[in-house]
Amino acid sequence: MLGICRGRRKFLAASLTVLFVPAITWIYLFAGSFEDGKPVSLSPLESQPHSPRYTASSQRERESLEVRMREVEEENRVLRKQLSLAQSRSPSHHRGNHSKTYSMEEGTGDSESLRAGIVAGNSSECGQQPAVEKCETIHVAIVCAGYNASRDVVTLVKSVLFHRRNPLHFHLVADAIAKQILATLFQTWMVPAVHIDFYDADELKSEVSWIPNKHYSGIYGLMKLVLTKTLPSNLERVIVLDTDITFATDIAELWAVFHKFKGQQVLGLVENQSDWYLGNLWKNHRPWPALGRGYNTGVILLLLDKLRKMKWEQMWRLTAERELMSMLSTSLADQDIFNAVIKQNPFLVYQLPCFWNVQLSDHTRSEQCYRDVSDLKVIHWNSPKKLRVKNKHVEFFRNLYLTFLEYDGNLLRRELFGCPSEADVNSENLQKQLSELDEDDLCYEFRRERFTVHRTHLYFLHYEYEPASDNTDVTLVAQLSMDRLQMLEAICKHWEGPISLALYLSDAEAQQFLRYAQGSEVLMSRHNVGYHIVYKEGQFYPVNLLRNVAMKHISTPYMFLSDIDFLPMYGLYEYLRKSVIQLDLANTKKALIVPAFETLRYRLSFPKSKAELLSMLDMGTLFTFRYHVWTKGHAPTNFAKWRTATTPYRVEWEADFEPYVVVRKDCPEYDRRFVGFGWNKVAHIMELDAQEYEFTVLPNAYMIHMPHAPSFDITKFRSNKQYRICLKTLKEEFQQDMSRHYGFAALKYLTAENNS
Q1: Domain 138-407 falls in which CATH fold?
Q2: Residues 371-423: pLDDT tens digits?
Q3: pTM score, two decimals?
Q4: Do the domains at 138-407 and 456-749 have one common CATH topology?
Q5: Domain 456-749, CATH
Q6: Of 109-118, 149-158, 161-170, 475-484, which range is least confident?
Q7: In 665-720, which ranges are continuous DSSP H helix?
Q8: Is 32 exposed, middle or buried (0-12, 13-18, 19+ CB in 10 A)?
Q9: How far apart are CA 366 and CA 377, in angstroms?
Q10: Transmembrane segments in this chain: where (predicted)?
C-alpha cells in the first residue's frame, strides 16, 4: 500500500513539474523579452545590430535566454517520457473493461514536419485525450480491383485485425472480380465484429473515366475522389487506405485523430516524402500543383459530412478540369487532384504526423519519420517495386510485412469482449449444428469436420478464360495439398483446356505456392487455371469440400472430375469435347468414364496412343488402376472390353465403384462427411447412380496415375483402428440417408454392400 502511495506521489510530482515548469519558464522568458515595455525579438533573422537600441549586453542576455529555453525544452521532453512510464506502471493502466480507451500522439523527431505542423495548427498534443469509445465502430474504405489487389487487401486486413480492439466496418469499392473473391473470403473467415459492404466500382467508372491517368492503378486509382458520393449519406467519417498499406498499431489511434480536426479541416493527410511535387527529379519535370512537398493519399482521413456540405464533388471536378487543360493527364491518379485542391484551399487539410504513412518508395525522406520501432504506425509500399524498394531499413519492413502475409488468419477470429456483436445467421447456425453433436462420441472429430467453415480465397492468381461458344467446353477439376505441387506443370502440359484446382494450404504455404507459380514459365503462361485456396483448419484433409469448391467455380458447361495424381492422355480435352456432342450430354444424364491406369515408375515414356498404352500394359509397364490393392474400385469399367472397343459402351453401377467421370456442371456435390482417406469418391458415384445417371465408358480415352509417397491420411487409415471404425460408421449413416432420400430404389446399395 505504501509503495502504491509513493508511486502516486511521484506521478503527481511529475505531472505538476510538466505543467508548472514550462509555465514559469515562459513567464520568465516573456518578461525578459521586453525592453522599456516593448517586445524584443528572439529570432536572429529579426535582430537589428545597427539599431541604436542594440547593445552587446542585450545580445548576451538574449543568447542566454535562448540557451535556457532549449535546456527547459529538453527537461520537459525527459519529464514527458518519465510521465508516460509512470502511467504505464500505474494500477489504472491494467484495469479491464474501461468504457473508453485513450491514446498518446507523440512526435517523430522530424523537426521540419513538426514545425510545418505547428504553423498549420496541427502539432501533436502531448497530453492524453478521450479517443475512441470501447465499442465504437471504425469505418474503413478501400478501393480494390482485380486478382492481385485482392491478395494485397487480405494482408492489409490481417494487419488491422491483429492490432484492433474495436468493431470494424469495411467499405470495399470493388470490381466484379474482387467482390467475388473478397465476399467469399470474409463470409468463410467469420471474424466477429467485422462488417463488410461492397460498392460496385464498375458503376463508378463514368464518374472518373473522363480523367486521363498515367498511373499504374488505372481508372480505379481515381475512385477515392467520389467516396463522398459513393458511401452512405449517414456516414460521417471514414479512414481511406490504399491496398499496399501495413498497420503496425491499433487503427483506433488513427481514428482518434479525427477529434483534432478544427475549423474547416476535412482531410487528414501525411506530407509526401518524395521530391515529386518539388519538380526537380529530372529536366522538364512538371508535376501537378501542390502545397510544398504535397500530400500522399495512401492514408486519408475524410470528414464526409463536412465535405458534402462544402460541395466537394463540385470542388474537385472544377479543379481537375482547370488543371487538365495544361497538364493533359494525371501522373499519380487521385493524389494529383487532391493536391491541386489543397493548393487552392490549404485550410482543408490537417497534416498528420508522418509516422501515419511511412512511404517506402525510392529516395524518400521516410527515415525521418521514426527513430525506433515503437514510432512506426503505418507502412506504405507505394513504389511499383513494392518489396524490392531501396530503403535503409527495408529488411525490417519486409519482415514485418511477411509476418502478416504468412500469419494464420484463423487466429484473428477472436471475440471483442464487452462489445455486443450483431447476430450472424451463419455463425448461429454453425453453433447450433455443433451443439447437437455428442462430444463424447468417439467419431466426434469426424462429424465436426463436416460443419467446419474453412476460410477460402478464390482465384488466388490471375484467371482469364471465356468458354467456347459451342457449349462443349470441359474443365478439369482436381484438389491438392502442398506435397503434390510438382504435378501442376505436367498436368498443364497434358491438358490445354481450363482447370479448376482447390489447394489445401496454410497461409505460409499459400505464399510458397505463389512464389512457385510465379517462378514457373509453364504456370504463368496459363491464364485458364483457377487456383482456389482453402486454408488449413482441423486435423483431417477435407477432400470432398475441396472438390466441391473446385466444382462450384467453373465457367464451362461440363467438368472432368479427376485427381491431381493423374496425367490425362495428350489430346483428351479435344476428345472429350467431341464426345459431349456425340453422346448428347446436354440433354441426357450421363457420366462419361475415362478409364484409369497406373505406373509404378517415376520416369515414364507417356503413351501417345491407345495402341501404345496397350503395348505397355502387356509388357507390365502399366497396370489397370489399383488392380493389386482395390480391384473393385474400377473393375466395372470392364478393361477387357475396353481393349477392343471402338464405340462408347454402357456399364452398370457396382458396390465400391469409383471411376473418374465427365458430367454436366449441375451434378450433385460430394458428401462432406467423408474426409481424409476412404469412400469419398465411392459415395459420390453412388449418388449419381441414385439420380439415374448412365455410366458410359469412352473407348479412346485414358489417364495414368503417377507414383508418389503415401499420403498422411492413408497412413492413418492403415494404422488407426478407430479411424477405420469411424469410416465404417459414416458409411452406414450415408447409406441410411440415401434410403430416406431416394426411397425404395436406394435399398440396392445396402444389399450390394452386404454381398460385397
Answers
A1: Spore Coat Polysaccharide Biosynthesis Protein SpsA; Chain A (3.90.550)
A2: 777 778 999 887 666 566 666 677 888 888 899 999 999 999 988 888 877 76
A3: 0.80
A4: yes
A5: 3.90.550.10
A6: 109-118
A7: 680-690, 712-719
A8: middle
A9: 12
A10: 12-31
